[in-house]
UniProtKB/TrEMBL annotation:
PROSITE patterns given in the database record: AA_TRANSFER_CLASS_3
Keyword Nucleotide-binding: no
Keywords, in A-Z order: Aminotransferase, Pyridoxal phosphate, Transferase
Required cofactor names: pyridoxal 5'-phosphate
Documented EC number(s): 2.6.1.19
Gene Ontology biological-process entries: gamma-aminobutyric acid catabolic process
Reactions mediated catalytically: 4-aminobutanoate + 2-oxoglutarate = succinate semialdehyde + L-glutamate
GO molecular function, one term: 4-aminobutyrate:2-oxoglutarate transaminase activity
Keyword Transferase: yes
Matches recorded under InterPro entries: 4NH2But_aminotransferase_euk, Aminotrans_3, Aminotrans_3_PPA_site, PyrdxlP-dep_Trfase, PyrdxlP-dep_Trfase_major, PyrdxlP-dep_Trfase_small
UniProt-recorded name of the protein: 4-aminobutyrate aminotransferase
Similarity comment: family membership: Belongs to the class-III pyridoxal-phosphate-dependent aminotransferase family.
């Protein structure tokens, strides 16, 4: 009840499409103007953020959409549509964040943008302890702050390579090490690799891009590291209805992980394995807690660091603050990366992952204090209003309704059971998926897709059952008209 009352305080909008087509003419005109100086083909629509509120996003033409996508990327089959994945947690123009932005603390941090690695503000430790460090994953007492999800993963990869090298060769460096690294040659630049999964998405920078394998458009024309990949388990959905098949599929994938690590041990050692709790851009692919427990056992046995990429799943979206909390690992992963709903970015890690010397894992900004302040405020807000449990309950409600809807419609492969609002389903063809997305937007509900055929939901943590009913009723109408 307290969450319901809270949401009503600043949500007075409802879905309303005023233009004859969507996006409307003003939105299209704005994008055309931007195209004179920047790429605009990934624009969905121009937003009037000053009028957007809570779960509702208002475009430049005055159209109001229920946002069940929260600034998520969507790459359609016939067109490319990309934004930032699931990066709004507690609603547009949340009053608590507005008050934070008015504070002297926020203003000082914003206008004096400190280079955190060299000149941290005197209150930096307190900002972290009151915010991001309150949600430290179990066993990971260290925190590296960064600018975005891609650079969080890039920095985690660097940490893994440095720690792996020091574990096997000690923390000192020979003259040959120092000279050869300047030529991008061994032994100073060792030939290590990161193991990832097919259909994974870990970012668009050079290291992270070499572990991203969800769509060719992300990578085509860009040089990449020759790093190995393993197939994601070929599970069937709904996951809970195919337990025996899925258990066997996961066992097969685990065997391939172990085999790949051992095959590379003497030619290109695997320093780390990176994995998403739910493969997001690659199609919302799921696996069981036992699968991830198996990955942790293999990485420990083989001396490989385990990086859990929670850039999209972190901060409550799956009905637990961190998705990997549900795995109940006996030994924690070595690193957990985050961004998106946190607004801030970086990775939590154990002490071994700290570099042996200053400037080895470093950049000018090392994150951004105002984003850390936002994260602090959001953590307080999430806890105060019980939004993680709220998201779990709303997710259960949506999932049950979608599974029922799938019994007599074209909806296939419903997934997201007990995963909060991290819910998706497939349509029979990519074109039908894109049609569902466009028709939903034309009716005032913003959703999107991933993979080839998946429709996915990424609502904010404040998304309630009233909003879920609007979403489900609109989807029911669209699906039955296909």
């Amino acid at each position: 009840m307290r969450c319901t009352r809270l949401l009503r305080q600043f949500q007075t909008l409802k879905p309303e499409i005023k233009t004859a087509s969507f996006p409307g003419p003003l939105s299209q005109s704005i994008s055309k103007g931007i195209s004179q100086y920047q790429e605009d083909r990934s624009h969905q629509f121009a937003v009037d953020y000053s009028k957007s509120s809570g779960n509702y996003i208002v475009d430049a033409d005055g159209n109001t959409l229920l946002d069940a996508f929260a600034q998520v990327c969507f790459m359609g089959y016939y067109c490319l549509i990309l934004t930032n994945p699931a990066s709004i947690a507690i609603g547009y123009n949340n009053p608590s964040l507005i008050e934070l932005a008015k504070s002297d603390e926020f203003i000082t941090a914003a206008i004096n943008r400190p280079a955190l690695g060299n000149f941290p503000p005197s209150n930096w430790k307190q900002i972290l302890e009151d915010g991001l460090l309150k949600k430290t994953p179990k066993g990971l007492e260290q925190l590296f702050t960064a600018m975005c999800g891609s650079c969080a993963n890039e920095s985690a990869y660097k940490a893994a390579f440095m720690a792996y090298r020091d574990r096997h060769h000690g923390s000192g460096f020979s003259e040959e090490d120092l000279k050869s690294c300047m030529q991008n040659a061994a032994p100073g630049s060792p030939d290590y690799c990161i193991l990832s999964f097919e259909s994974a998405f870990h970012g668009r920078l050079f290291g992270s891009l070499s572990t991203t394998r969800s769509k060719a458009i992300h990578k085509v024309g860009v040089p990449a590291f020759d790093w190995p990949q393993v197939a994601w388990p070929s599970v069937k959905y709904p996951y809970e209805d195919h337990i025996d098949h899925n258990k066997a599929a996961e066992a097969k994938s685990l065997d391939l992980v172990k085999q790949t690590i051992r095959e590379h041990k003497h030619k290109k050692p695997v320093a780390a394995l990176v994995v998403e709790p739910i493969q997001s851009e690659g199609g919302d692919n799921h696996a069981s807690a036992n699968f991830f427990k198996g990955l942790r056992e293999i990485t420990k046995e083989e001396g490989v660091y385990m990086i859990v990429d929670e850039v999209q799943t972190g901060f409550g979206a799956t009905g637990s603050f961190w998705a990997h909390d549900k795995w109940q690992l006996e030994t924690p992963p070595d690193m957990v990366t985050f961004s998106k709903k946190a607004q801030a970015a970086g990775f939590y890690h154990n002490f071994e992952m700290r570099p042996s010397l200053p400037y080895r894992n470093f950049n000018t900004w090392m994150g951004d204090p105002i984003r850390a302040l936002q994260a602090r405020e959001m953590i307080s807000y999430i806890d105060k209003h019980g939004l993680v449990k709220h998201t779990e309950d709303v997710g259960d409600y949506i999932y049950k309704s979608l599974k029922t809807l799938s019994e007599n419609t074209l909806i296939e492969n419903t997934r997201g059971f007990k995963q909060g609002t991290f819910i998706s389903f497939d349509m029979p063809t990519p074109a039908q998926r894109d049609l569902v997305v466009s028709q939903m937007r034309a009716r005032g509900v913003n959703i999107g897709g991933c993979g080839e055929r998946a429709v996915r939901l990424r609502p904010m943590l404040i998304f309630g059952k009233a909003e879920a009913d609007i979403l489900l009723n609109t989807l029911h109408s669209v699906i039955h008209r296909l």
